[in-house]
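Recall the central idea of this unit: under ordinary conditions, the amino acid sequence of a chain determines the structure it adopts. In this exercise we apply that idea directly, starting from the sequence alone.
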Amino acid sequence: MPADPSRPPATPTVSNFIRNIVDADLASGRYASHTWGGKPGPASAHAGKPLDPAKIRTRFPPEPNGYLHIGHAKSICLNFGLARDYGGACHLRFDDTNPEKEEQEYVDAIIDAVQWLGFSWEHGADASNLYFASDYFDFMFEAAEYLIGAGHAYVDQQSADEMRANRGTLTEPGRNSPWRDRPAQESLRLIRGMRDGEHAEGSMVLRAKVDMASPNINLRDPAIYRIRKATHHRTGGKWCVYPMYTYAHPLEDALERITHSICTLEFEDQRPFYDWLLEHLADGGLLARPLPQQIEFARLNLKYAVLSKRKLIQLVAEKHVDGWDDPRMPTIAGARRRGYTPEGLRLFAERIGVSKSDSWIDYAVLEDCMREDLNERAPRRAAVLDPLKLVVDNYPAGQEEQCHPPNHPQKPDWGKRAVPFSRELWIEREDFAEVPPKGYFRLFPGNKVRLRYGFVVECTGCDKDASGRVAAVHCNYLPDSKSGSPGADLIKVKGNIHWVSAAHALRAEVRLYDRLFAVPYPGSKRGREAVPPESGLGREGKVYAGGAQEEYNYLDDLNPDSKRVVFAYLEPALKDALPEQALQFERHGYFVADLKDSSPGVPVFNRAVTLRDSWAKDRP
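Accordingly, the structure predicted from this sequence is:
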């Protein structure tokens, strides 16, 4: 269930420029007269209504055409976190204005992701602040008719190529459309015909009449409605015209009485049109004041990952991964299945902060946040991933006893668990060396080690198969050396290895996941030379080598070792591991029982993150 939004944040609140804006707005009383009619609506719906019980209103407005990724998690934490900390409300709004790419599957996945992260869109007496842009289609069309009647919009019948040619450049002004000054009644007749399906797709669009000579190209009469004869996942075939996002987005904010509309930096140049549109509609009495303000921040750029929706769709469609929730994907669904925690993602969002400057965050920062969170919540368990048989020759055959390791070495209140010890054990293959290298303190002939939380054993030799590979290791145990028994600590050894009883071990599938890409900037690297996209190279998949420009496919940077499946031997209690139960496999990392593929008594485990950063040496 979603966390109570009134609860304090899981991590300390750090000030940033957006919080400074909110603080100044509240101090000045900018929204002190803000009324709320109980649900979104035009000015008439909020006139004379009580003051808004929410001190601020923010929103998270995803398009339901894909699964949310970790970049969205940053925005979710920012918007819902602001509302929580300031006694406000955050709306979950689906911007479903593109009928050709939207599906209910994505709506359901987005709702699940936001709830899993621990946030709620309910506030006070509000039943729910879950909204759909498609609910506002009638008002949007009414507003378009008003703009036409007021001389602020017109139907343009230029072709797409003609509009592009007349738009101008960054250094040259645009040219007015020959249809720009057509009578309002004519434009009204045409837009209604567009709505009713009387005209072909691409034959005309509705444009706002702003300024074709503006230095901001986004103000050169942007298109606000286009013809799309497509079935919408919620409204069916009612509409043959759909609003453009630059038109719909500000109207949605204003209808929902949003105070602070927080967007990523690519919308900064759109802000003048955002303000232009809302001011004209407020002047016409359609929208209530005070109006929303748009604030931009830098989106998340994450090394060793791609967050482009187009590229994520390609990875799924071409089966480079096993679906949107593949644990290697940077989607929230993938992160959840991998074993990442909502608390770890919230910590990550807090740690990387909010700024106006583009920057790149190393994937190691995300992994460190997961280690920090999982270290606190994950019980310790033993697992042997690359098994080698260890035979304790002087331990009585058929005998067994219990050893008692702690569930968490730093949390004695978590108690201990019983694990069986017997004559034959599984150990990691790397824990034996017939001829040990210098500084090797684990098993080799003549050396003693402690079996973790068990006995001290002395290696006596090994057996080999026909190929010469070690098949089993032999040792003798010291009966008086059992951990926790009197005098056991007097026996000093340098090596300490983990083990599981062969007779009792659970054999299970374990998936060792790693980063999906082998390089920091996928699509912008040749060999070992990394080219950060902020250098101007790589955003279009290009890299310069020796002065030559080369095309580069980001798919060539996929990490061939991003997924490795092994069958491991685990301590027997792990048979009852529940899906999404976080565990530390000692010496190996943090793991979770897979959400989809585990079944009662037959868990499948995914590695969330290793105990240490194994990529540090490869950082550019």
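The chain has 13 helices and 29 strands.
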